[in-house]
Design goal:
Length: 314
């Protein structure tokens, strides 16, 4: 279907099937990050006793009763105001304290709060400190005026929102995320090992003789036939056109292919992006002449990956 076609034919297929975006479904929310609260379900549901309690006196009484009976409820406070996952972990492990500065003239410059996961009891004085924290942080208002039914639903919403806000951290790897399921399906079909985001030196564990020239280079994906000691590196890149120079891109990957071939490892470039490649037919022709396996998302998805794996590992 693909690998036996001429460079001109492949260039035409490539250009006629370019993407304008690198975002798959798994770009928008990483649902693996929407977790961590499960061990506190009892405390989460217990917090619902504060929902809609408009009487300040009754609110404080319920708060004090809750923390007296379930002191681990304080571990949920960082979830309620959207503290980052890594900061929450450090607080829970007792490595850090939450420090907050104050602007009132007759007050301490800063206050510190602990949220250790090994908490077993709280004194009345400690409960008063956490109550003041709850009020100052706006969580009392959250429960009196904003949350209508469920603390659990609110926490899940916070975690989804935080992860969505972190999309910029997935921006550079969005195309890899979109392609990875295709690699996983094909590797399963061919009974091959898939390594993602790893250095070539990892192949030494499977008996490969990896030169120092490439050992510390990082690969997007490496497909490995462990039993027969064969491997191919797939580099996956999406270019939006801004600052992208097709000639330099193609030349750099020709050099990479040569370095890998000298070590007995195959190479394929998976690249896409209409703004970069739509008017780069000459460079694509060069790429298809000198790169053994050049493809875009359409080609990867519609048979070329299967052809490559069959050709190399059959």
């Amino acid at each position: 279907m693909f690998i036996d076609k001429s460079p001109e034919e492949l260039t035409s297929i490539f250009v006629n099937n370019l993407l304008t975006t690198n975002r798959g479904f798994n770009y928008f929310v990483d649902w693996n990050n929407v977790k961590g609260y499960e061990q506190y379900l009892v405390e989460i549901h217990a917090l619902d006793v504060l929902v809609g309690c408009e009487s300040d006196t009754e609110f404080k009484r319920r708060f004090e009763d809750l923390l007296t009976k379930l002191p681990k409820t304080i571990l949920l406070f960082p979830y309620l105001f959207g503290l980052a996952k890594e900061e929450r972990k450090k607080l829970n492990k007792g490595k850090n304290k939450l420090t907050i500065i104050q602007d009132e003239i007759d007050s301490a410059d800063k206050l510190t709060y602990s949220f250790p996961e090994n908490i077993t009891t709280l004194t009345k004085e400690q409960i008063n400190i956490y109550y003041d924290f709850f009020v100052q942080m706006g969580l009392k208002t959250l429960y009196q005026k904003i949350i209508e039914k469920s603390t659990l639903d609110y926490i899940i919403g916070v975690l989804v929102g935080m992860d969505s806000n972190g999309r910029k951290n997935r921006g550079g790897s969005a195309f890899e995320l979109a392609c990875q399921p295709i690699f996983e399906k094909e590797c399963k079909k061919h009974n091959l090992l898939l390594l993602a985001q790893t250095k070539f030196q990892k192949l030494q564990a499977f008996g490969f003789n990896i030169s120092q020239d490439i050992a510390n280079r990082k690969a997007d994906f490496i497909v490995v036939d462990v039993r027969n000691k064969k491997a191919i590196n797939f580099e996956v890149n999406f270019y939006n056109g801004t600052g992208s120079k097709p000639e330099e891109i193609i030349d750099s990957y020709i050099n990479r292919q040569n370095d890998l071939n000298a070590t007995g490892i195959g190479f394929s470039l998976v690249t896409d992006g209409k703004e970069c490649w739509n008017n780069a037919s000459n460079q694509l022709n060069k790429g298809f002449r000198h790169l053994k396996y050049l493809q875009n998302f359409h080609m990867l998805k519609h048979g070329m990956l299967d052809e490559i794996l069959t050709s190399i590992f059959a």
